[in-house]
Amino acid sequence: MISNLQGYILVVKTENKKPLLNVENLSAGYANHDIIHKISLDIFEGEIVGVFGHNGSGKSTFFKSVIGLLKNKRGIIRFNGQEILSGNISDNIKLGIGIVPQNNNVFPNLSVYECLQIASLKKEQFLIEHIISDFPILRNKQNQKAGSLSGGEQQVLALAMTLQLDPKILLLDEPTAGLSPNMAKTVMELIDNLNKNFNKTIIIIEQNVYSALAVVERAIIFRHGEIVFDHPSSKLKNAKNLWDYF
Fold first, then answer.
1. Out of 105, 170, 176, 194, which residue is the most buried by the measure of CB atoms under 10 Å away?
2. Which range marks the domain in which residue 185 is found?
3. Please, how many CA atoms are within 13 Å of residue 135, restricted to the half-sphere of its CB?
4. CATH value at residue 88
C-alpha cells in the first residue's frame, strides 16, 4: 500500500518510559453535563490502540478533549510533555496531533492535489508528490474533485492530508464507517502499515471491532463514560464472548 514514503523517516519501535499522551482524571462533556468521568490512561510512542464502546460511551468526547475542543473539561492532558489547553485547537494540533474526523474530512469542491496543498500549510510541498506517488488510490485522481471520490477514497485522502504535517500521533474516528468490506480492509491495511513500518502512534475509534482487532495491539473499552477495559487486544480476540466486555 505504501512503498517507502520518502518524506518520512523509518524508525524501529523502542520502549518509552514517558508517555507520548498522558491523561489524568479527565472529566469532560458539553454545557454542564459530563460524558466521560475521571478517566486516566497513557499512550506510548509507537502504540496502535483501538478504542471501543457503544454510541454515547464517551469515545468521541475523549478525542475532542485531546485536541482541546471542549471547554467543559477537568483534569490534565499532556502531549509530549506539554499540557493541552481547551480552546487552543490550532496550537495543540501543531504539537504533533493529527486527527481524522469521521465526516467532513476533505474539501469536496477542491481537487485531490489542492486538498493536499491546503493541508500542508504551504510547508514542505515536496511531500505532496511523495504522498501521491505512495498512495496508489490517489495517484491517478489528483485532479479529480475530492467530493467525487468514493467514501473509502475520501478516507484515504483525509489520512494523506493529515500526514502532510507529519504528526506524532494519529487520532482516527471511525475510519471504516460506511465503507465496503474490501475498502475497509484496504484502509485498515494502510493504518497498520503506518504503525508497523513508520512507527506512527495511532488511536482508532472503531465500531467494527473485529476489523480493528486485526491490527491494534491494545484495546480500550468505554462504558458510560468510564474505561472498563484496557488490555492487550489478544485478550479480546481470544474471548469466548467478546460482547460480555461491553
1. 176
2. 21-109+171-245
3. 30
4. 3.40.50.300
